Amino acid sequence: MVSLLLVAGVAVAAFVGFNIGGSSTGVAFGPAVGSGSVSKTGAAALMTGFAVLGGANSGTNVIETMGGRIVPSDQFTLAASVAVLFFVGLALLVSNLFGVPASTSMTAVGAIAGLGVATGSIDWEVMGRIVTWWLVAPITAFWLCAVIGRYLFPHLEARFTLESPGEETTLRERFGAVLVVVIGCYMAYAAGASNVANAVGPLYGGRVLGDAFLPYVGLAGVAIGVGAFTIARRTLDTVGNDLTDLPILAALIVEVVSASIITGLSEIGIPASLAVSATMCIVGLGWGRATRTTKLADAAAEAVAGPPEASEGEAGGVTVDAIADGDEPETPEPDEVAKIGEEDPDEVTAADLFDPAATGRVVMLWILTPSISALASYLVFRYLPVV
């Protein structure tokens, strides 16, 4: 019976890692594959290697947190570990069904918290610190990218436009190709640091494969690699070829900021969601870019006095008389960057860059999935003879 449970535990952990490899590879290397900088096979190999590297370094702190700090490690019997991993796998299924990047980290912590509350063994101080960072990390991601989008993105876009390398590549194109691959590797490292624990944290808590980290990281790494070489190919197609609303430069900014936040949290042992941080980076970048059409002073004055009425003969700041006389509106040179408040609202619209309704649905599911996981885990461990 114990050996059967062990096989089940390893299988469920491998399933979780497999799905992590499938989803995270597209996020990390979608821009690189889409721009032709690396092949799908190359992306899968890099994803596997750097995810293992992240899990073996920064990820061990997260494994310890999920395998013995939220609840004592002696609570992770083999049956309990299998049950917790089942909830993580269920979260992946729900996220795939709804098409929302649900957080496996948050769901895994929720399941472990449910175990701790049911057995009266949860460490509320550790749990409180984790939840605090869950609130701080996405807010930080949003505002960092909002500032970049409002003040820096147009300047970066004017100077560092990244293009797909052609047959006769220029130095700029080669630099862009190398850059997207390097940042993809960094994203893969962060994915390993945060997600390896989701696959094997409960098993490490029960020390079912021994006390060393290597077998657990190896198990997760192999599973992530299998996912990267198989189901990730479709994800790479989706992310790499459907980036019309998220240019390569914007994707790289999102990757750098979100990966840095998650790597930093992993170093201090906080299990946090790469998907949540990346999504909030996208929202923040879009919102920041959309707000370039208005100066802060003008927005404040309009809020107090109301919107100014258009004077007779004016249309969007260009007079009808001027158009009638044949005077065209001044168009900035291609390399010029419009100042804040002078952006063309028809070119930079909030509707294209930021969707509050969609963001609200995503945030609701982020809250819902770990809550359901925690409640289901509590009921299972409280009323069924699992532990």
List keywords for this structure.
single chain; 387 residues; mainly alpha; 15 helices; Phos_transporter; Phosphate transporter; phosphate transmembrane transporter activity; phosphate transport
Biggest sheet: strand arrangement: 1-2
The residue fraction in helices comes out at over 70%
Q: Which of globular, elongated, flat, extended, rod-shaped describes the shape?
A: globular
Main beta sheet strand tally, sense and closure: 2 strands, antiparallel
How much is the radius of gyration in Å? 24 Å
Number of domains: 1
**Total count of helical runs of at least 4 residues:** 15
**pLDDT under 50 segments (min length 5)?**
310-334
Keywords: Membrane, Phosphate transport, Transmembrane, Transmembrane helix, Transport
Membrane topology: Multi-pass membrane protein
Protein name: Phosphate transporter
Pfam families: PHO4
Tell me the layout of helices and strands:
Elements: H1 2-34, H2 40-56, H3 59-69, H4 78-98, H5 104-119, H6 124-159, H7 171-205, H8 214-229, H9 232-241, H10 248-267, H11 274-290, H12 296-305, E1 314-315, E2 318-319, H13 320-324, H14 350-353, H15 356-383
Antiparallel strand pairs: 1-2
Characterise this structure.
With 387 residues, the chain is mainly α. It has 15 helices and two strands. It has helices at residues 2-34, 40-56, 59-69, 78-98, 104-119, 124-159, 171-205, 214-229, 232-241, 248-267, 274-290, 296-305, 320-324, 350-353, 356-383, and strands at 314-315, 318-319. Strands 1-2 form a two-stranded antiparallel sheet. The longest helix has 36 residues, at 124-159. The radius of gyration is 24 Å and the shape is globular.
